[in-house]
TrEMBL record:
GO (cellular component) term, any one: cytosol
Domain Tetrapyrrole biosynthesis uroporphyrinogen III synthase: 26-216
Alphabetized Pfam families for the sequence: HEM4
Source domain of life: Bacteria
GO molecular function: uroporphyrinogen-III synthase activity
InterPro entries: 4pyrrol_syn_uPrphyn_synt_sf (IPR036108), 4pyrrol_synth_uPrphyn_synth (IPR003754), UROS/Hem4 (IPR039793)
Biological process terms in GO annotation: uroporphyrinogen III biosynthetic process
Organism of provenance: Aequorivita antarctica
Protein name (database record): Uroporphyrinogen-III synthase
Transmembrane spans: none
Length: 227
């Protein structure tokens, strides 16, 4: 039986996708996310979110800050990266104007279509530079607000796996700080994560879409083809 290591603890239905395919699972959180306190701007015309963590932190802050004048829909327009981020924004009553798979694509879209707008960018302490760089390059006004902190959760494994699932560049760095893949495949959630993984191994496979389920499906198919 093939064994997969997930660098993120999976939901029950996600675990089932592996177990029902006859794949054994080991899982842990390679990174730890901590929401940080910050002052929510009163008027937010355009907001940028690149992760579900950013969205969750934002709305937890809004809900816990009873004194704020912000109502149920604090943002006029949202721009985001990833289907799950978009869904989460919409669940919180937000209007998503544009969603892209990658930060580079969103950065290009904003530079091309919103040169005269200003933005609030809600992000973590370890964020990619594509969006801020592109906005600065095009003289687009934005305020960056750190809403969560990512720390690496280092853990050494004494055993080998057939595949390791990676969901972020920081998760890749965390795993490889203590471990090697050897002959295992790195199954990555997208091009950005894969780019980081390629610094450590040549055995990199990218999921078809940037969802956890797609990473799992790619792992199952890759392991079947290896048999």
């Amino acid at each position: 039986m093939s064994t997969v290591l997930s660098t993120k603890k999976l939901k029950e239905n996600q675990r089932s996708l592996l177990l029902n395919a006859g794949v054994s699972l080991v899982e842990y959180n390679a990174i730890i996310i901590e929401f940080v306190p910050y002052e929510v701007p009163v008027n937010i015309e355009n907001a940028i979110f690149t992760s579900q963590n950013g969205v969750n932190s934002f709305f937890e802050n809004v809900r816990s800050n009873k004194s704020t004048s912000i109502g149920g829909t604090p943002i006029e327009k949202c721009f985001c990266v990833g289907e799950k981020t978009k869904s989460l924004l919409e669940e919180n009553g937000q209007k998503v104007i544009k969603m892209t798979e990658y930060a580079t694509e969103l950065a290009d879209y904003l530079a091309k279509n919103h040169k005269n707008d200003s933005f609030h960018f809600f992000c973590g302490n370890i964020r990619s530079d594509e969006i801020p760089s592109k906005l600065k390059e095009n003289n687009i006004t934005f305020e960056e607000i750190e809403v969560y902190k990512t720390t690496l959760n280092l853990k050494k494994f004494e055993r080998q796996f057939d595949a390791v699932l990676f969901f972020s560049p920081s998760g890749v760095r965390s795993f490889f700080s203590e471990n090697k893949l050897n002959a295992a495949k790195a199954i990555c959630i997208g091009k950005t994560t894969a780019f980081e993984a390629k610094k450590y191994t040549e055995y990199v496979v990218i999921s078809n879409t940037t969802t956890v389920e797609s990473v799992i499906a790619k792992a199952v198919n890759t392991l079947k083809n290896d048999d």
